[in-house]
Amino acid sequence: MRFIYRSVLVCLFSLLLNSTARGDASELIVDYLERYHKLSEKDVNGRLELADWCKRNELHQQRADLLMEVLKLRPGHDGAYVDLMDADQKRFRPVDRQWAERLSGLVGPRFKLTHSGHFTVLSDCDEQGAQTQADAMEDTYLLYYKNVAAIGLRPMPPDRRLVCVLFEKFDDYTDFLKQFEGMQNSWAGGFYSWRTNRAIFFQDRDNPAFKEVHAKIVELEASNKQLHEEMEALGAGQTAKRLKIQDQLKHNNSLLEKINARLNLVGRISTLSKTRHEAAHQLLFNSGVQKRGKAYPFWVAEGLAIMFESTDSQGRAGPSLVNTYRLSSYRRCERDGQLIPLADLLHFVPADNDAVEKVAARYAQAWGLTHYLWNKQPRQLATYLKNMEEKENPDWDRLFAACFGDDINALEVTVKAYVEAMPQPMARP
Q: Whole-angstrom Cα distance, residue 176 to residue 194?
């Protein structure tokens, strides 16, 4: 408890120094410090009363610190947990200057920091692009805590800012993974490292999956260059040929505009999807639901993250939403006979050299299973997630059977029927 007390004072002293130019804020911090100093180390009610005072004065960071102390003193205090979630959603986590300077120098001088309430994005994208991803991560933050608490878990706020590294280009992304994470595979479009606690991904406009599209853009741009050169070389009496070249240029530019608009849209949707996916991984490992350094079955690790990656046409999101991309992938795999038995899915671990299509199929199956469990057996899923954290080296098969039943074949039939009953997804743009 002494360590917590000292760390709170250090944080508050830093805030006080940074707010000297804002008279009212400084006075509030001084008032808060005086009130806090009068509390005994185990005074739960005093902390709750001071937290209410902080709420009235919009000292969200201080309110969250107090409520965290209450929960350490009295872990089962439901009211304090609800209030903590409210305070945490409203606060802007402090940005330590030295930490920010070290992070800025991680990759290179062209990378800049973008701070949101709970995340910091290190990126070489333009400011708007980085801010868009930071906003998506904040949306995921709110969605995560609301929905995970709804199934009976108590995810705690991260103890610090969460970091995302966003690249404009795919090659820079893969180089970073090799250098800093020692990782290289053929299918990962994004990556959360529990070792460094960073989410890493790239803008999907530069995805190698769009190789043919980029080749078409290069072809049209080269054609335009050649047409301009031909037109400049025309004489005064070659009007008909000039008009023909202008028509071709108009056609090329119209096609370029359509291709670029479509590529931008698809790239933006795909990038936002994996932004939310990797943010969910970070939150799972920083809120107590999962533990960094511990290996988890592929289906549950990825299935949980997929629950938060999609939004519908009205902007709604969450675990109850049907992920149209994963559903389309699932049904395509089912049609082509690429689904594996549930018993095999529970033990599946992708290899670095696995084909993209194979891993995508397992992601779709993991989503189908997790979506069913989250929406139809939420309490059992919460029990499973609690138990997998409480046991150091769990027997995953036994744990699964204890929570969801030992008739795997019957569950497989139920999950398939559940997915098949989902509405037919609309085609993605």
A: 16
